[in-house]
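Appendix B. Chain record.
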Amino acid sequence: MRTKLTFSLIFAPLSLSLCAACTAQAGAEAVPTAQTGAAVHPESGLPVIPLTVMAARGKHVFKVEVAATAAAQAKGLMFRTELGPDEGMIFPRDGFSQASFWMKNTPLALDIIFIGVDGRISNIAANTVPYSLDPVSSAGLASGVLEIRGGRAAALGIAAGDKVKW
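Structure tokens predicted for this chain:
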């Protein structure tokens, strides 16, 4: 009996993890988890939340992955080959320092949008070069950095000074 209990305690979580990984790979949409009701991205496993940009041409809502941990922020969108037109990733920051990003191991061109401590876009590094090691930096202190598909900010009329809420 003890062996069976030990086997169950060891392998049940493993089989659940494998099932979760298989399910995550099967779908392309963010799916809600049974435990929290929050959506998670099927590839990264990060929470997915709505983020709104209020631009001069109106507001636009993105579904963004939240890279809240140091590990998630270090990986970012590296190795991704697809990013939907209304998808992205938000990197929350403390607002006490300038932000600097690069495109190492990132095959997609991105618009990197730097959000100041007032919640407004300070600057945008548009259509960043895939795989580039050149740093792109915020124009000042950053409370967040938003990455979306390259060229999308211009297409939507998103510009410095626009308000961002997440």
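Further analysis of this model is presented in Appendix C.
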